[in-house]
Structures are given as C-alpha cells and as structure tokens.
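Late entry, evening session. Most of the bench is empty. Finally got around to the prediction I had been postponing all week. Sequence below, unchanged from the version circulated by S.P.
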Amino acid sequence: IAKRSGAAAPDAAWADGAVRVRPVALRSPSAVKRYQYQRPGASPRGSACTLCAQAASAVCTPRAAMRLKPSSWASSQLTSTRSGRSPPVSRVHSTTLPAVGWPEAMPRSKRGTSRGVAALTVPAAVAARLLEPFDLALAEQLNPIEYPPIASVVMGFNRDQVAHPLDGFGLLIPSKEHKQTLGVLFSSTLFPDRTPLGKVMLTAFIGGRQKPQEAAEGTEDEILGRVLRDLSPLLGIQGQPEFLRIQAWPRAIPQYELGYLTRIEAISTLAARWPNLHLAGNWRGGIAVGDCLINGQKLAEQLAATGA
C-alpha cells in the first residue's frame, strides 16, 4: 500500500479506523482483502474495481420487509429476546481426562448437556477460561489476545441539521488529524427505510487501541461531546441529536499484531489434540462480519460432513 499510495497511506485512516490497531503492529492477515494491493502486478485501481464488483450485490437491506418507514425513532429500534435460546455455557468439561472428573460423578443438576462435538465461537479470553481446566497450554495462547474498548455512538438528526449529503459509506479519520473519533458510518444511507421520514442516522466509533480511554471514560454527554466536536466541522452538523444510543464494548475487536501468525499456528497445533473441539471467532481468519460469515459457513459444512 505504501509503495503505491505513499508512506502515509497505511498509517492513516484505514489502519486507525477500520482495523483499530497500531499501524506498526499490523499483520497481513488483519488487512483482510487489502492484501491484493500488495500482490505483484496488482494495481490499486484494478484491485479496487475487482473488490467493488465482488461486493456490489453483497450488502443490501431487505426493503420489501421495510416498506413502511418507522414513524418515530422508538419504532425504528429492533428489540431482542432470549426466548427459545439455549442457556449460556458457563463451563466445559472433558470426559476423556480423569483428572477433570467424569460427568457421572457430578450431581445431576450440574451435569449440563453432553455433546460429542463442541464448537466454541466466543472471544478468545472466554474460550481460554472455558478450556483452562483441561488444557492450560491452549488457554495460555488464547488469553493474551488483546481486545481494546470501543464505543459506538448512534445519533439521529433532522435532515436539515446535517449539511453533508451523506452520499457514501461514511468516513475514517486518520490519527494525524488528532481527533478522538475513529470514524462514522452514514447508517441511514447504507440502510434506507430504517429511519423516520426527514431523519438521518450516523453511527460513530470512538476508542480503539491508541485511545482506549475515549471509549471507557466519561458520561454519555461527555462521549457525545467528543464525537460532535470532531464530526460537526466535517459534516456540517448543527445542534444536538434528537436520538442517541451509546453502546460501550470493553473488549471490542481482537488485535492482529506482530506475532499473530505464530500464535494462531500454536493454537491450531494445540487444538488438534482435541479433534471434536472446534475454535472459531473473529480472533482468527478475519475480524470483518463477512469473514465471520464465511468462516462460520465453512465450519458448519465441516461439521455437517462429519455428521456432527
């Protein structure tokens, strides 16, 4: 990237905002699709056109199911329930290690559910806690994977409060601009018919590896103030949002730093000792939602092929 776009390119908005990692620590696997720019013979323009063509039909919003615009911000929010879901897993036992204890020796109320195959699709630290009782070496490789905090700030405005046409995906803010906000998505542009008539929605992100305190410290008003100070001059925002939701993620995005490949190889080697245990998540194989979907589908197909 630096060779073709200048030394500042990899150290700018993409590494800071899209990956939330220190550019000096960036590893090629965390670059997801961007590695194509560095392949011999690949031009930035050609690679960009290829990626855009592949993604043209990949992102969509179900307009047929959203023909009625929400009449208020409240009605535009999705609600969730745990109805019908299995209870969360609090402990994993191995029935092949006598030192751990056989399920039959446990009180019936604490035996839980017995499965021949287990797929742990949880954050690395959670997987480490579950696996530590019977594989300390594997847990010690998983636990150090770092997840800096990030806060998402969802803001709803009247259309006339935002001068920018919002005619794109959003924007990322490079660290050299000395802002606290990592970037912002034009959510109402990306997903039409999700906001009331005459309204626009912006989703900003603050925090990350370089500025974790921005997401973890302060009240909602203080976090909103930081975001508006950064975005108002860029987007021509006037006044306060009439809708606001702030969600803090203390452990948000796994960091693919120097030594990442060695760590993943060690995890794969250790996990191979447990053929019926499958580890997956955005800490391996890509942090993007698209990568998670692809990796999840591959794992599901693998399990289905074995009759699990």
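Two things to note before I forget:
DSSP finds ten helices and seven strands in the chain.
Residues 150-249 form a domain with the Polyamine Oxidase; Chain A, domain 2 fold (CATH 3.90.660.20).
Will write this up properly tomorrow.
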